[in-house]
Each structure stands twice: as structure tokens, then as C-alpha cells.
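Appendix B, record 7
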Amino acid sequence: MKILLASSEVHPYSKSGGLADMVGALAKFLARTGNQVGLITPLYRGIREKFPEIQPFDWNLDLPLGESRVQAGVCVRHFEDLPLSIYFVDQPQFFNRAGLYGEGGLDYSDNAERFTFFSKAVVNLARYLPWQPELVHIHDWQACLVPILMLHQKLHEQWATKPPTCLTIHNMAYQGSFPSSKYGLTNLPLDYFHPGGMEFYKGLNFLKAGISYADIITTVSPRYAREITTEQYGCALDGVLRNRQNALAGILNGVDYDEWKTVANPYLAHSFSVDDLSGKVANKADLQQEMGLPVNPEVPLFGTITRLTDQKGVDIQLAALEEMLAADLQFVLLGSGSSVWERGYRKLAMRYPGKCAVRLGFDQGLSHRIEAGCDFYLMPSRFEPCGLNQMYSLRYGTVPIVRITGGLDDSVTDISESLDDADGIKFLEYSPRALSKGIRKALVLYKDKGLLEHYRRNGIAKDFSWDRTAAEYEQVYRRVIPGL
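C-alpha cells (predicted):
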């Protein structure tokens, strides 16, 4: 198959969350199975300097954007060992900025312009690239105008060979909602601006446009595909999703084990495996020392790596830790986000200096060391389309404590579900009390070394490889590519 992906962020070039990890891995593993793969993403500040393999591509964009026209170049990185090309849309006015979507906690005021233009660039490449993709796979709201722009060109501009489109929703909470005055940027007739199309409460909604006009829709876990058709999780688009239910499928994200590995990992001083867990004990001691906590193998170490937002359950986690840090345990956090929550966790660390350590910001190496060195990983999300850290934790022999929602439910097995397969602790109620109960279960588990090792070995042995996930996407593609 010939597949063109489009995403506003791609690891290792740009990243604000799991979207970048997922798209980068999907492209690589689709190419590994012999598909020809292209991937389009913006050329953000600093990418070209960090990756000298990126070269100019003989391609110029001159596209309408409302009443004006915008020009851009394209750069490309080809891979010698894979049928994979990554195309970077080079438009400095839109993308040469300090942030991806905003700065100082505020979105850029021209995000509608930026990502309408990005969507038009994707459509242009999809139509005119010499290798002619058979399917265009877009990700999240920033590329969600692609399906309707392609459909319009098929109907009115003689694009007879227009490929089908697949939309993956990574998080319903981010929709790209703008005033109706931004609709003119699309240069589409008003025929598509109605409640059954792109209009959403008299405004323009990019995600709704993608849901309405993509040929097939996926989410990043099976449970989340069911959840978003309900009022509780649908973020006011549940009715639109129910109308497209026959085109909706859930595929659990994979883990790139080339990067998230416990043997020969450049970020870890000690390797370990399902057959030899001694290196995990050594990594724990290193982490305790690095974070300024007393080095003590007998004290259970809990950890979290997260965006400090309401979605991630940081409110109930902070409240639960206020209670549970009175017990004999340690806690480490790496993350950033809301200033309110950053202050809350800093104060917690000040009150419990020998038990709680907080590092604000992003640190890839420390992320690996927390996953490898902790005994338990807290992930009490309010909602979680897929989640990756619980799967990283399992591979690193760190027992996840998760709320039953989205991909957390799909990927973690509680002892109440299966003693033989147990690898984590799950709770349902969204409350500090329920999370505290989960932490107390972990403290009991930690004292039972045989059962704890059983959990760890189950987690390490669990397979969330991208080979499986990429194969499921190929099956979805075949449903809509003509002749396959």
C-alpha cells in the first residue's frame, strides 16, 4: 500500500504529547512491513538544525488562504533502509515559533490560519506527489480539514483518483473550535457550513469536519471508541460520532520497543529483563539518589510523568498524596503544565522533603529512569484515550495504578480480572479516596515479594509491539482502499 500520513507533531522532530510518539512509530512500522509511506508535518523552529539529513525538496506551495495567498517550501528526509519519506512544510511565518500551538499557556491567535494552511499543503502533496498515495491518514484536529478539501476537489476540480481518508482521534478534548468568520480561510463554498457538516454551534469546528467527512475514523484504544459515543466522553460531538458509528474503530496504540527497552538503553545505567530483575533494583537506587531521596530499597517508590492538567487526574492525585505520604513511601514527579498544579506539587515536595521529589519540565532521559526505577506508577486519569506511560511501565516492570477508563482499561489487568495475568492495580471512582485505596493495595503488594515479582514479570512479558498495531491499521485501510 502507498500511505500518506499527516500530523502537526512527530517524534523525534516535534512533540507536545503522545500524538508525536504514535505517528512517528506508526510511520516507521508501516514502512517496515513494505508499505510506501510518506509523512507530512510542519517545519518548526530548530528542526532543520538538529537533523541535517533534512534536505530541500523540489516543491513550492502557493495556496489560497481566504482573501490572500500564502507561499511555502517543502523539505524532506528520506530513509535509506525504509520506504519512508518525511515532508516538512516550510512556512516560517506560521511555524518558526517558540511553541507548537502557543506560548505562556495561551494558544496562538492565528492557529486557524496556521492549520488551515497546513491542511491545504497536505491536500496539495496528496494530489500531486509522483508516487500517488492510495490513502491519506490524518491525525487530530490540526489536519481535519483535509477530508473535506479533498472531497471538494474531487467533486469540482476533476480529481478522479482522490484517495480515501482515515482520521485518528487522539483526544476529543482538543477540537480546533473557531469563530464562523474563520470559515472563509478554507475558500470553500458555504454548502459545507451547516450542522451536518463543519458548523458547530454557529462556529467552525475542525474536528467535527474531520469526523463528518473522513471515510473511516479510528481512536487510539477500543474502549475510547465506545466512550466517545456517550455524552460523558464525547465532548458535545457524541451525536456526530454515533451517526458515524459504522465507520468508527478503536485500535490500541503500540510501544516502540526500539526506544523503550530495558537492555542496552542509553538512559539506564543497569540493564534488566524478565529473567533477571536485579538491574531494576540498582536503577531504583540511582533514581532515589538523582532525585535527592534517601536510598532505601525497602521503601516503595511511586512515580508519575505527566502533563499537569485536569485530564490527567492531578487533582485527585495531589489530594491522595497529602494523605498517603504519611505512610512509608516515596514519590517522584516529572511534568509541567498548569501553574496551579505546579505550585501544588512544589509545596508537597517542600512539606515532605525526604519522601517527595518534583522535577518540573521535560526530560527524556529522566522519563526512562523514572519508569525503570519506580516500583509503582500512578496514572489516575479523568479520561485517557490510550495512554502510553502505563505500557512503558509494564515493560519496565513497574506496576501501574490506573483508573478504569479508555486505554488504561484495555492495557492493564487487575488481579480481580485474572490472578494469572495480573500486572496492575485498577480503580473506577474518580476520587482521592479511590486512588488512596489503590496506593494502599500497592503497599500490601510490595510486602509480598513473590506476588510483586509475578506482577512485574507479567508486565515485562506483555506485548504492545507496533507490529501488531500497524497490522490492525493495515486492516482498516483495506476496508476503504478500492480494489484491496
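Remarks on this record: The two ends are 9 Å apart (CA to CA). The chain has a mean pLDDT of 96.
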